[in-house]
């Protein structure tokens, strides 16, 4: 890489910082960009430069969107009585593959992870509680779909306890469920196929 021109070398260095990209792949991608037609490269650069300004979080579920309310929350065909709580937007996308779920979502944008200094207040748990309190009796079920690893389980338990407290204080009747273990321990929803997710939804249990 030391023989690369500085501008090409900087692009390769940046690409190497992306998840799953090693030095050789970063070098190949840098040369791929170099050989793109200038029009395509400018179009790509335009999308990247506008990413932070155009993309925002849905006011309701915190999904990524270019509007105030995402397409899922604004879809009249979705069952607004069921809310599935996921860690990341990529987990939501996994559920949307294969048409296996017709409810709505709440995206935490993380999970409780003390070792990495991520506390409950660092993710969007309070937004979920505020949402449930606001919607009150329209909520019939909340599915806790955090990943089945140590941090995901801790996050689910924390949210469950907070929801139970809210139910008691407001005299609400919604159920709290956890995904059935069609998913192996330590798995990530992002990489699960839609049939596995279908079984996990079908076999969810009281929590």
UniProtKB/TrEMBL annotation:
HAMAP family: RecR. GO terms for biological process: DNA recombination; DNA repair. This is Recombination protein RecR. The keyword Kinase does not apply. Gene3D superfamilies: 3.30.60.80, 3.40.1360.10, 6.10.250.240, RecR Domain 1. The gene is recR. The keyword ATP-binding does not apply. Residues 81-184 form the Toprim domain. InterPro entries: DNA_Rcmb_RecR (IPR000093), Rcmb_RecR (IPR023627), Rcmb_RecR_Znf (IPR015967), TOPRIM_dom (IPR006171), TOPRIM_RecR (IPR034137). One of its GO terms (molecular function) is DNA binding. A zinc finger (C4-type) spans 58-73. May play a role in DNA repair. It seems to be involved in an RecBC-independent recombinational process of DNA repair. It may act with RecF and RecO. Keywords: DNA damage, DNA recombination, DNA repair, Metal-binding, Zinc, Zinc-finger. Pfam families: RecR_C, RecR_HhH, RecR_ZnF, Toprim_4. PROSITE patterns: RECR (PS01300), TOPRIM (PS50880). Belongs to the RecR family. SMART domains: TOPRIM. It comes from the Bacteria.
């Amino acid at each position: 890489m030391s023989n690369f021109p500085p501008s090409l070398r900087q692009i390769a260095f940046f690409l190497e910082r992306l998840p799953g990209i090693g030095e050789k792949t970063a070098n190949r991608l840098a040369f791929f960009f170099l050989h793109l037609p200038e029009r395509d490269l400018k179009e790509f650069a335009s999308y990247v430069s506008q990413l932070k300004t155009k993309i925002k979080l849905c006011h309701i579920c915190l999904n990524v969107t270019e509007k105030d309310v995402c397409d899922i929350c604004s879809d009249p065909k979705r069952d607004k009585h069921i809310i599935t709580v996921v860690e990341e937007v990529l987990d939501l996308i996994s559920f949307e593959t294969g048409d296996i779920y017709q409810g709505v979502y709440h995206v935490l944008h993380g999970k409780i992870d003390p070792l990495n200094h991520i506390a409950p207040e660092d993710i969007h748990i309070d937004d979920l509680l505020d949402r449930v309190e606001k919607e009150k009796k329209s909520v019939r079920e909340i599915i806790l779909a955090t990943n089945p690893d140590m941090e995901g389980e801790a996050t689910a338990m924390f949210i469950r306890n907070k929801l139970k407290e809210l139910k008691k204080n407001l005299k609400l009747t919604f159920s709290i469920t956890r995904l059935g273990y069609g998913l192996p321990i330590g798995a990530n929803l992002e990489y699960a196929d839609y049939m596995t997710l279908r079984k996990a939804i079908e076999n969810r249990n009281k929590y």
